[in-house]
Design brief:
two-stranded antiparallel ribbon; 9 strands; 249 residues; seven-stranded mixed β-sheet; Rossmann fold; single chain; binds S-adenosylmethionine
C-alpha cells in the first residue's frame, strides 16, 4: 500500500475526523444493519487513548504517538500531556496533521464511488491543545537517539505494518519512563507485504508481546477496540484491534 497517495490521505482524514454520519453517508451498509454498529466503531483513534491508558494518573509531562498518521490520537494526548510528539513515516500524513493543528480546519475528500466524491472539513478536536504537539516524519524502527523518555507511549495499528517489529519493541524500555504507560493496539493483520514471515510472531501476537516485553513491563488490561474505515460508499473495512496496556517497571 502506498501511504503517500492522496486517496489514502483522504481515507485516513475521514477515519480520524469524520463523524458517524459523515462516514456512513450514502452508504449501502444500512441494508446490512449499520444502524446497529456501536458508536465505538467511529471513535477508534480517540478510544486507543481514552479507553486504554490510566488517565487518572495524569496530568503527564510527555507523550509519544508512534505511527500517528493524520494525528487524531496525538490531539487527544495533548489534552493530558504538556508535550506530545507524533511520528509517522508518511510525509503527507505528517504535513496534513501539522497543517490541521495550525489552521484549525483542513479540507479533504470523501469518496462516493472510487473516482467521485465531495469535500468535507476536518476540525481540530474540541479541548485539544495543538501548541503542545510536534508532528515529525520518522521511522518507528529507527527513532532518533535523543528522543528522551515519555510518560505515555502510544502505537495504534502500527506493529503489523513494520518490516521488523522487534526493532521497535527493543527500543520501548528506553522510551517509557519507569512507572510510565505503553499502549500497543494491533489487529494482528500480519502480511508478508509489510512484515516478512520470519519477523512475524510465530504464535499469538499477545503472547509474542509478553515474551518480548515482560522483562521490563507488566501487562495490565487488554481491550478489543472496533474500527470502521470507509474506502467509498460501498466499500468499508470493519475490524477490531487488540489494545494492551503495559507499565514500565
Ligand atoms: C494502519 S496506520 C495506523 C494509523 C493510526 N495510528 C491509527 O490508529 O489510525 C499505520 C501508520 O503507520 C505508519 N507507519 C508505517 N511504517 C512506519 C514506520 N516504520 N515508522 C513510523 N510510522 C510508520 C503509516 O504511515 C501509517 O500512518
Amino acid at each position: 500500500m502506498n501511504y503517500e497517495a492522496d486517496r489514502i490521505l483522504n481515507t485516513y482524514l475521514l477515519f480520524h475526523y469524520g463523524t458517524r454520519e459523515e462516514i456512513l453517508a450514502g452508504s449501502s451498509l444500512e441494508g446490512i444493519g449499520a444502524a446497529s454498529f456501536s458508536d465505538a466503531c467511529f471513535r477508534f483513534p480517540v478510544a486507543t487513548v481514552t479507553d486504554t491508558f490510566d488517565l487518572e494518573k495524569g496530568p503527564f509531562s510527555r507523550a509519544l504517538d508512534l505511527g500517528c498518521a493524520v494525528g487524531r490520537s496525538s490531539f487527544e494526548l495533548s489534552k493530558v500531556a504538556g508535550e506530545v510528539i507524533g511520528i509517522d513515516f508518511s510525509q503527507s500524513f505528517i504535513e496534513a496533521a501539522a497543517r490541521l493543528g495550525m489552521d484549525q480546519t483542513l479540507r479533504y475528500r470523501r469518496y462516493s464511488e472510487s473516482h467521485l466524491g465531495d469535500d468535507l472539513f476536518a476540525s481540530v478536536p474540541a479541548d485539544s491543545i495543538p501548541e503542545r504537539i510536534r508532528f515529525q516524519v520518522g521511522d518507528a524502527m529507527n527513532l532518533p537517539s535523543d528522543l528522551g523518555s515519555f510518560d505515555l507511549v502510544h502505537a495504534a495499528n502500527l506493529l503489523c505494518r513494520l518490516s521488523e517489529p522487534l526493532r521497535l519493541l527493543k527500543r520501548l524500555p528506553d522510551l517509557v519512563k519507569p512507572g510510565g504507560q505503553l499502549v500497543l493496539a494491533t489487529p494482528a493483520t500480519w502480511l508478508e507485504e509489510f512484515t516478512p514471515t520470519e519477523y512475524q510472531p510465530e504464535g499469538l501476537t499477545l503472547d509474542y508481546l509478553e515474551t518480548q516485553l515482560s522483562s521490563d513491563f507488566d501487562r495490565q488490561t487488554v481491550t478489543e477496540l472496533p474500527f470502521l474505515i470507509r474506502d467509498h460508499q460501498r466499500k468499508f473495512q470493519i475490524s477490531t484491534s487488540q489494545a494492551s496496556l503495559w507499565i514500565r517497571r
